[in-house]
Amino acid sequence: MKNSYLIIFIVTIFSITSVTSQETDDPFLDLTNFSDGPYVFISNNKLIEKKILNGVVTSKVLEPTQYDTIFTPQKSMFKNVENIAALSDIHGQYDLAVEILKNNGIIDPNLDWNFGKGHLVIVGDVFDRGPKINEMLWLLFKLEIQAKKNGGRLHFLLGNHEYMVLHKDLRYVHDRYKVSSKLLGLAYDELYSNQTIIGRWLRSKSTIIKINNSIFVHGGVSEEFITENGIDISNTNQIMRSSIERSKQEMKSTDFYKTYYGKKSLIWYRGYFYDNLVDADISKILTQVNSEHIVVGHCSNEEIVQLYDHKIFGVDSSIKKGTYGELLFIKNKQFYRGTLDGKQIKF
Predict the structure, then answer these.
(1) Is the peptide bond before 38 cis (omega within 30 degrees of 0)?
(2) What is the distance of C-alpha 263 from the center of its chain?
(3) Alpha helices, H only, 42-110
(4) CA distances from 330 to 121, 211, 296, 345 (A)
């Protein structure tokens, strides 16, 4: 029996080592220096916090009042907002995102909310590729609470990579989290299941919102999506939330998957950048959604860009590369690039 346990132990360690060795420059190769968490699970009305510290999993029961366990979706439309900022496609580049937010006055040196009554929109894709997803999620979780207390808002819109992870598509997960999954004994998507604090929080989020006269959505609003679905923003958000618990097989049995997860969907559409649309096409879409602008992520550029005479703004500034990034400011109907060093450049 002892020999059997020894074999299992050796196989487990070998498996973890083989995962981490895929990246020779990964600082987490040595499990004695590997840390991650927290992950807070909900079990029999108890909150159980699990962390990995120096390669060892620790677990403790938290006070039941430490976190809310019910997250009510916020509304999908907001008016009379004076200051708006938008950041997109962070992809686990926590340190760079923090630098951008600090230098542009969204958060203070203590990583607390500093944007007053302003609204910060995260236009999807915090998940995948980079090494600090969990850190970014907990920061946004905290800032959302702080923003509301200050009369502001933080909106975390779900992008295609959020939906991929929640639907168990783990192709782009960083090797660090493959190690965490093995140490915790759970598949990566289970770390954000409906039985976790962050998982429930994510399931309350929107896919598309409207603030003043601008639509915010990860991919974009296509003419095909409007034709197939219409554009009731609140109803669309509820449909997308409900779809998280549906299997791909079930959704693909009808046209649902094509409409809400296909290439022309809100989370995957790239047409503004690649489909050779003309100004009349964009104007028609804007009329149908009753907006003057659409702000999107998903398609990477070296900086924030505007298209179609300031009707479309692309805010995926390639933060995923880990070297540079920007955020978009909207103030008094004027649009500005907020650079990494905090300069604001008017469009």
Answers:
(1) yes
(2) 19
(3) 94-103
(4) 11, 10, 14, 11
Check pLDDT > 80 for residue 11. no
CB distance 340 to 100 below 8 Å: yes
Give ranges for CATH 3.60.21.10 in the chain: 77-346
What's the CATH architecture for 77-346? Answer: 4-Layer Sandwich (3.60)
pLDDT at 1 over 60: no
Q: What is the DSSP string of 108-134?
A: -TTS-B--TT-EEEE-S--SSSSS-HH
- Report the distance separating Cα 313 and Cα 62, nearest Å: 43
Contact 175, 129 (CB under 8 A): no
CB-based contacts of 58, cutoff 8 Å, min separation 6: 50, 51, 52
Which of 345, 265, 343, 336 has its CA nearest to residue 86? Answer: 336
- Evaluate the CA torsion angle 264, 268, 272, 276 in order and state its sign: negative
Q: Which amino acid is at 160?
A: N
pTM attached to this predicted model: 0.91
